[in-house]
Amino acid sequence: FQHRFTLECFPAHYKVMLDKLNEQRQLDQFTDITLIVDGHQFRAHKAVLAACTLLHAPCGLSCSILPLCAL
């Protein structure tokens, strides 16, 4: 018997994971990029930005190489 784990098995898992990532961002833990928007700096996780292509696309290749990204 093989069980497949699906989102239905852990309905709140996505929220727990996003909350933990946000907590790490707020504590500047594991952040690896700084986004600059209108002179304001925001620390972020590249992996989270990469998962959201709408935010990652404007930076192009530079976001994957440089720790700063001006938007």
TrEMBL record:
It comes from the Eukaryota. It holds the Pfam family BTB. GO terms for molecular function: DNA-binding transcription factor activity, RNA polymerase II-specific; RNA polymerase II cis-regulatory region sequence-specific DNA binding. Residues 31-53 form the BTB domain. This is Zinc finger protein 131. PROSITE patterns: BTB.
